């Protein structure tokens, strides 16, 4: 929420309005109502607005509401009359009226009435909140349409905040939200500011699940604004409304919270390490909160959405409103439990093998509504052509290639293997399916519901087509790679030179059309390198097992492939070079080390030494690596060039640890092992075959990493246009904030740019809210499996036992290490906490995590496969790694002493952080990590 205080100031004795002096101060004083005094509404029914009325009713009922008073709509009307604004309102432009209020001094008698009430409270820090007449009604919530100004203190700032709230009646977003141009009057609530330890929302009925007797609680550390804006992680609880017992809970690792940074300034800061993995609320507190919710529901006789907070163990209620949307009826089983987007025959529905392993590393994890809709665009417009780039003659139906389940993207392995049977290397479908199956699925008796690809003439034509295509690919792969690199640099430089804010809607449409065409071409160009590297790795694994027996187990991960120059590994070296340049310039280093992350880029550019550093080091680095980011197909995530905070965090880390380039080079240049000795035991023909396969794997891997930057840059270009559309929608009031861009549908963005339709009609508020609710629902659910056959009931997933001390996963990178665990959920906020040698424990990684691997002692992930990013990069840095543990982030705590065995695929907790006699990681005498033989 906006916490900026207006520059308009009004002293307590502010002068007269244009309408002349005020002669009846008592009349104005009567328009200021202390909430809870004199009955639920203090005799001012209909003048307190929705929020004010509800708070007055809660106070009168004896519920724990912080002290507050309300400036009624009558006082607002008096202000408009006495300043002459009322006479101008009819037919006036809303923005003009808003500017008039912000630029007009408050008449003295009205200001005195406000400040008298503020003085009666003792002049504490307060939150000043708008309260519209239709706000929090059963028909419309008006949530977020009018302004709230937090953590205000002092007479002038309180008056400024009141003017801000009054002016927001004519804000763009409020004007758009109303179904008529005629605004209602506006009340304002001034309430004591409670700097809560824990905040959240509580629903007296589950808004996304029709099951009865469920009080749903979401709780976060700090102020509730972080939860409302979606910037922080929250715990999820369900309380039975009859027994007041906690029947379900999901505790998330919480890195950040919204809290006061300094008086009058609210922002994001870190959660104390000790509070990150523990529940925000105890079961006793949840019972107390549940009892309050039942009282409120009984008071109104309807289901309620309640905002609350806890300070020093005491609950406070900040708002309640009727729930305006009810949970939908359960979806059909196929729609709820299957990734298919369209109905399918029963054998296909129940027999399809689905996987989200290794699908480009860019679809990993839960995606937002915008990310999912962009993935659907890719499915319909790009993916089948990518199959064609592999030499597949019949690329099939686009809707069957991919599926979507509980916010995750899945590849249809059954259909893909059916189509890839047209190609000689994957004629036997098992060569493909076995690479995309985690241990949850046993393929011993599996039969593909799509059958086998037609034989006869179709087979012959497909084989000839594949041979011709492959011959062309082998001759063109290097030259195409260079063309993609050159094109990337051209497109990147061109995009940096564009000012999208100055483009018309039609021009922006042309830019998106151009970017999507390049997005199409770069994905098609990248796909053969990705799949061929995948295929040669699989062939190497198979040949090692067949020809070397037990000596060949895991050999494919020990063979020195001399791939230390891979683009994703090279980025870690380049971060070190930038860090070294910063270290050598005290003025630059001071800014990077001491200033808030969000201010560093600006402060560097404002400083002469900083500007030189930026031009000589940051700009070349960003040109080479800047379009990297977390979960790259999720276009809501900023890239390094959009937000370089992570780079500054890694500079801090590299400088603090004294990490040298020799350390990185030593880790990424190979180590002495027995691979050549083992290969030397083979007859010369077989050894030559393996050497050839290793060479081809290395070549395809290098080309894949080189062209990957072109592929992800194409996504960044699309993101730029989408966020420019989002910026305009926020400015026009169609969206409440930039956070809501994540809840748009990509097809709506395209439709809006392609035509002349009004934005309000294209971006329907009901659909945006529905998308947000569904995304919040998906966030609550357990992580779905990497692979499954047919349908899967995710709600049946069971949380692991909390006392588990041993985990099993995939042995991704060899070696064995003992070290302290560090749970990392938010890369930007936690990079500076990570100590060299610690064991990185996280859900999954992608290319943006690579610089952290350069200092990690080991890597453990919840999900992943032998060719996921975490596995590949761990092997290149020779960091022991175990992936696909399912629940390491839930069963391991930061500071636990753990053993990671990258040969056996096990992770064992040998000492809990709670029982460590030497203190937390990084304490004197406690090694961060120690390798064992």
TrEMBL record:
InterPro entries: ATP_grasp_subdomain_1, PEP-util_enz_mobile_dom, PEP_Utilizing_Enz, Phosphohistidine_dom_sf, PPDK_AMP/ATP-bd. Keywords: Pyruvate. Residues 915-933 have a biased composition (Low complexity). Residues 1-25, 911-933 are annotated as: Disordered. It holds the Pfam family PPDK_N. Residues 834-905 form the PEP-utilising enzyme mobile domain. PANTHER family: PHOSPHOENOLPYRUVATE SYNTHASE-RELATED, PPDK_N DOMAIN-CONTAINING PROTEIN. This is Putative phosphoenolpyruvate synthase. It comes from Streptomyces lividans 1326.
């Amino acid at each position: 929420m906006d916490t900026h205080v207006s520059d308009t100031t009004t002293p307590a004795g502010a002068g007269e309005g244009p309408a002349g002096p005020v002669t009846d101060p008592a009349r104005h004083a009567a328009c200021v109502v202390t909430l809870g005094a004199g009955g639920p509404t203090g005799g001012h029914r209909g003048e307190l607005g929705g929020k004010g009325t509800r708070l007055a009713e809660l106070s009168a009922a004896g519920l724990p509401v912080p002290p507050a008073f309300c400036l009624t709509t009558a006082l607002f009307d008096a202000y408009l009359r006495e300043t002459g604004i009322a006479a101008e309102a009819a037919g006036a432009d809303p923005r003009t009226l808003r500017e008039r209020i912000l630029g007009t001094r408050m008449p003295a008698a009205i200001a005195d009435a406000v400040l008298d009430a503020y003085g009666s409270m003792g002049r504490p820090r307060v939150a000043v909140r708008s309260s519209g007449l239709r706000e929090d009604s059963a028909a419309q919530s008006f949530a977020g349409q009018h302004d709230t100004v937090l953590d205000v203190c002092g007479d002038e700032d309180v008056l400024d905040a009141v003017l801000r709230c009054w002016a927001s009646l004519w804000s763009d977003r409020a004007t758009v939200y109303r179904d008529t141009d005629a605004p209602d009057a506006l009340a304002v609530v001034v309430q004591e500011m409670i700097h809560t330890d824990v905040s959240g929302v509580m629903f007296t009925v589950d808004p996304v699940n029709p099951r009865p007797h469920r009080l749903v609680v979401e709780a976060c550390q700090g102020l509730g604004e972080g939860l409302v804006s979606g910037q922080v992680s929250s715990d999820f609880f369900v309380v039975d409304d009859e027994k007041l017992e906690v029947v379900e809970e999901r505790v998330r690792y919480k890195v950040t919270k919204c809290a006061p940074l300094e008086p009058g300034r609210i922002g994001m800061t870190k959660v104390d390490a000790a509070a990150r993995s523990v529940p925000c609320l105890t079961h006793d507190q949840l019972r107390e909160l549940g009892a309050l919710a039942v009282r409120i529901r009984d008071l109104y006789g309807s289901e309620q959405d309640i905002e609350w907070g806890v300070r020093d163990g005491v609950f406070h209620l900040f708002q309640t409103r009727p729930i305006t949307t009810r949970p939908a009826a359960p979806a059909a089983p196929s729609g709820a439990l299957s990734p298919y987007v369209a109905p399918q025959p029963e054998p296909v529905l129940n027999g399809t093998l689905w996987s989200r392993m290794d699908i480009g590393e860019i679809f990993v994890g839960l995606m937002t509504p915008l990310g999912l809709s962009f993935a659907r665009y890719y499915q319909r417009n790009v993916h089948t052509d990518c199959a064609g780039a592999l030499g597949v003659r019949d690329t099939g139906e686009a809707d069957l290639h991919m599926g979507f389940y509980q916010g995750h993207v899945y590849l249809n392995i059954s259909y893909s293997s059916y189509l890839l049977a047209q190609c000689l290397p994957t004629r036997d479908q098992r060569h493909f399916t076995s690479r995309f199956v985690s241990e949850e699925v046993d393929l011993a008796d599996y039969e593909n519901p799509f059958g086998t690809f037609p034989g006869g003439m179709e087979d012959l034509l497909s084989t000839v087509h594949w041979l011709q295509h492959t011959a062309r690919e082998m001759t063109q792969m290097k030259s195409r790679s260079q063309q993609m690199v050159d094109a990337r640099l051209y497109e990147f430089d061109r995009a940096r030179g564009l000012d999208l804010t100055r483009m018309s809607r039609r021009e922006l449409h042309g830019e998106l059309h151009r970017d999507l065409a390049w997005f199409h071409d770069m994905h098609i160009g990248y796909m053969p390198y990705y799949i061929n590297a995948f295929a040669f790795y699989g062939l190497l694994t198979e040949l090692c097992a067949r020809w070397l027996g037990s000596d060949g187990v895991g050999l494919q991960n020990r063979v020195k492939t001399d791939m230390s120059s891979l683009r994703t590994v090279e980025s870690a070296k380049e971060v070190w070079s930038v860090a070294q340049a910063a270290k050598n310039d005290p003025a630059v280093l001071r800014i990077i080390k001491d200033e808030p992350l969000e201010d560093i880029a600006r402060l560097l550019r404002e400083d002469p030494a900083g500007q030189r550093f930026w031009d000589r080091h940051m700009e070349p680095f960003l040109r080479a690596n800047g379009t990297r980011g977390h979960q790259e197909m999720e276009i809501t995530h900023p890239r390094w060039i959009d937000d370089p905070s992570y780079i500054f965090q890694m500079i801090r880390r590299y400088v603090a640890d004294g990490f040298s380039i020799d350390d990185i080079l030593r880790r990424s240049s190979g180590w002495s092992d027995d691979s050549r000795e083992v290969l030397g035991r083979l007859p010369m023909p077989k050894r030559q075959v393996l050497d050839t396969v290793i060479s081809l794997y290395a070549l395809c891997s290098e080309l894949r990493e080189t062209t990957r930057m072109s592929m992800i840059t194409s996504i960044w270009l699309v993101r730029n246009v989408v966020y420019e559309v989002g910026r305009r929608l926020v400015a026009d009031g169609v969206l409440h904030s930039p956070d809501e861009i994540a809840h748009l549908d990509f097809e709506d963005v395209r439709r809006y740019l392609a035509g002349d339709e009004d934005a309000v009609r294209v971006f329907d508020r009901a659909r945006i809210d529905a998308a947000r609710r569904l995304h919040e629902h998906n966030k609550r659910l357990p992580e779905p499996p990497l692979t499954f056959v047919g349908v899967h009931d995710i709600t049946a997933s069971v949380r692991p036992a909390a006392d588990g001390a041993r985990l099993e996963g995939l042995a991704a990178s060899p070696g064995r290490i003992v070290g302290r665990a560090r749970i990392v959920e938010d890369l930007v906020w936690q990079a500076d906490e990570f100590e060299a040698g610690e064991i990185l424990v996280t859900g999954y990684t992608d290319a943006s995590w690579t610089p952290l691997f350069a200092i990690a002692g080991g890597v453990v992930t919840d999900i992943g496969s032998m060719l996921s990013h975490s596995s590949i990069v761990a092997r290149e840095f020779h960091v022991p790694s175990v992936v696909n543990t399912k629940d390491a982030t839930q069963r391991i705590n930061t500071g636990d002493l753990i053993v990671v065995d990258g040969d056996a695929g096990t992770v064992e907790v040998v000492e809990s952080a709670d029982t460590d006699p030497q203190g937390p990681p990084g304490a004197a005498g406690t090694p961060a990590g120690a390798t064992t033989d």
